[in-house]
Design goal:
alpha+beta; Nuclear Transport Factor 2, Chain: A; five-stranded mixed beta sheet
Amino acid sequence: MTDTEMNTRITGTPPEVMDAVMARHFEAEAAHDREGILATLTEDAEHEPVGFPGAPFHSHDELMGFYEVLFEELEQIDITPVRRLHGHNFLVDEIQYGGRAYNGFMGFEFGPDGKPVDFRLLHVCEFEGDRISREQVWLDVNAIRMQAAVNVDA
């Protein structure tokens, strides 16, 4: 372990570093840049999108498969920050997510042409230095379900 890694473990990852990593992570997701996403994660990162089949994911290969499906089923249009809380080597990030859902996103039928979807999303991320070591993603599944039902004939 390097001196920098040891210092980060003792003092924690500074909030501005966590914020910069999250900004790069979200930018890469919006651009469907899988390599950019992986660059924000440790090699042994655990990624748990709660409610997705197969979660949690424990390797970059598993994550590539997850993002392949996600990018086919969800298109990001707008993200509105709600609040962000920082702790010792972790952050909690709440956003309002706006986009289009396609096909069977989250197990609900949105059709191949997609339908608008808007829901709250919560990230709980743990950090090792300037990388995410664990990420949980909580979606407002009830809001998604209600929009799928409303959008059946849209």
